[in-house]
Design a protein that fits this description.
With 384 residues, the chain is α/β, with parallel strands linked by helices. It has helices at 24-35, 53-56, 71-74, 82-87, 131-135, 141-158, 172-182, 220-230, 243-249, 262-271, 285-292, 305-308, 329-342, 348-356, 360-383, and strands at residues 12-16, 41-43, 60-62, 96-101, 115-120, 166-169, 186-188, 208-211, 234-237, 254-258, 274-277, 297-300, 321-324.
Length: 384
Amino acid sequence: MGRGAAGGSPRVALVHDWLTGMRGGERCLEVFCELFPEAPLYTLLHVPGSVSAVIERRRIVTSFVQRLPAAATRYRHYLPLFPAAIRMFDLRGFDLVLSLSHCAAKAVRRPPSALHLSYCFSPMRYVWDLYDDYFGARAGVVVRTLMPPVAAALRAWDKRTDRVDGFVAISQHIADRIRRVYGRDADVIHPPIEVARFRPVSGPGEYYLVVSALVPYKRVDLAVAAANRLRRRLVVVGTGPEEARLRAAGGPTVEFLGWRSDAEVADLYARCRAVLFPAVEDYGIVPLEAAAAGRPTIALARGGVLETMVGLGRAEGPPTAVFFDDQTAEALVSAMLAFEVAAARFAPAALRARAEQFDRPVFTQRLRDYLDRRYAEFRARRSC
């Protein structure tokens, strides 16, 4: 990393939307924290103990959202307040601002003399691509009545990206969305997985597997319907507001396990036949985790999974997935049957080798090289 304003290392501030659990975004944040161990972390909300020790042990600065009633569990209800909350952070004195954002973090006010790079998981999903999933028919009548003008205001706010000097997208799929929504180009650095957490085992596998939040856009209902139709064993890991409806729809071959620890999930991957992945995902960590455990994925042919998986019959290399084109139970059933015919073509060693291309050390090196280059370019421009 280049020199800061006073000639030493740059003074770095990290900004993250909120800290309420260890998900894909927080696993990326861990790497940023390791690269900049002295950098303070600014976030709208922090639930102590909800994230890893690497994150917890640094100085964490929260917004007024932290003090609102029931914020730890109902923070999304305060969405209209997030623009004001993120603007209140004072980042004077920092040379480099690194935000990790799918909602508000990218809108933090950077000092005029600082470089702001935003690692973008997505433009604000709630008011763009997934508006109907969050505020459509399943929402209460009050929310459906009040939300349209609020969403319009949030869209106008979200499109203002003048405080960001450069975007880094988690996938080309998201880079395309950034270009469509913000009118900005973005570099791409794919998020990491931790390959060492997974251990392939021999054998054909015992069941199909879904690892997912149980929310509408994940389309777990398609996996349940396909398993019912084929009478195949399906294990579902995850919780969410759709759980009761999905349990009611599940037949005798479908089992719901709820939340499971990382170690338990790794074991479930290793013993499955294949992972079912019927959602349009921004990136998709699950197929790569399955590959690290030596298991393939049956996936909808849209979104970030097209950048990480090699489809059966494709020329790019050994297959790691069977793709299906239509987001329907019928198409998923056909893909499952196609997989069963070709199951012997999915080699655990090739699957793991594919996952290793996205391993955490690879991400760390790519991120370090990118930040070094961008900050050096920034310093060179300012010295002219």
